[in-house]
Amino acid sequence: MSMIFFACVVRVRDGLPLSASTDFHLSQDFLECRKRLKALSLILTQYPSRGTARGRDLSIHFLSSGEIASMVICSSSYSTIMAFCFLEELQWEFAAAYDTTSIGLASRPYAFLEFDNIIQKVKYHFNYTGCSQMKISLEKIQEELKFRPPVLLKLEDMELMNGLTNGGHTQLYMGSVPTYRMQPVTAIGILSLILNIMCGALNLIRGVHLAEYSFQEDHEGIGNVIAFFLPFLACIFQCYLYLFYSSGRKMMVFVLFFSICLCNMYLYGLRNIWQILFHIGVASLSSYQILTRQLVEKQPDPGV
């Protein structure tokens, strides 16, 4: 049966619910669709004022007007024109019941449970009495949709956009998406950072001094200048990789370590063997610390 199942009013800029609901359905498809509706409500500013997200059995329609937006879940076979007539009427009722000019200034969640009575009444009229109770002209909506058709979305696209995985158990900015943090910094890790900074500073100082000499007298020494500056940058980036997680850190660690080794071997003559071994040893320690500092999954706070 083609019908409306759920409707709500939200604030456009952040998806804050401006209406409560007593609708309750045990259908898994409905529950998943409502999760996607909540995710979509958070990014309404990215879309035009009208939009439709179609699924196999259920669809979401939304209508934005100024600071507020009305959203509805209905069966996919339900008329798009009727769905937007419903949304127009819902916004008209909301504007009549509340001062919408103050919504932009609100910083606390609204608890408009009493507006649910109006939602249920309008929903009943559209589900069971057709157009007889409509305040909105069907022809007017049809003409508007003809010249300004709603943007078409897919529920599956929304799932990817909002990071929903395996049936959609997470949402953008809300839900149960796992958040990650790095393991605590160890004493050896702090030591590796200090040594890395020291090696980077030594490379920078030698590189600057050599650059002043090379640019004035010995233009053939540019290679040596580069061989000092590259390890300096590599040391800084190693510190960054240790402190902050990066998905491609294994490859980056290998490239950085190889660059430091290659540059120090190139500098043999300007540095003795012990200095070279010291720099390579520090790079080895930093690389090991980066690779062994693992992620720790932070369980979502159920009270948020």
UniProtKB/TrEMBL annotation:
Transmembrane segments: 184-205, 225-244, 251-267
Keyword Transport: yes
CDD domains: Longin
UniProt-listed Gene3D superfamilies: Longin domain
Longin domain residues: 8-119
Compartments where located: Endoplasmic reticulum membrane
Pfam entry (one): Longin
Membrane topology: Multi-pass membrane protein
Residue ranges the record marks as coiled coil: none
Stored InterPro entries: Longin-like_dom_sf (IPR011012), Longin_dom (IPR010908), SEC22a-c_C (IPR059071), Sec22a/c (IPR043546)
Keyword field contains Nuclease: no
Main localisation: endoplasmic reticulum
GO cellular component: endoplasmic reticulum membrane
Keyword terms of this UniProt record: Endoplasmic reticulum, ER-Golgi transport, Membrane, Protein transport, Transmembrane, Transmembrane helix, Transport
Gene Ontology terms: biological process: endoplasmic reticulum to Golgi vesicle-mediated transport; protein transport
Family: Belongs to the synaptobrevin family.
Entry function: May be involved in vesicle transport between the ER and the Golgi complex.
Protein name (database record): SEC22 homolog C, vesicle trafficking protein
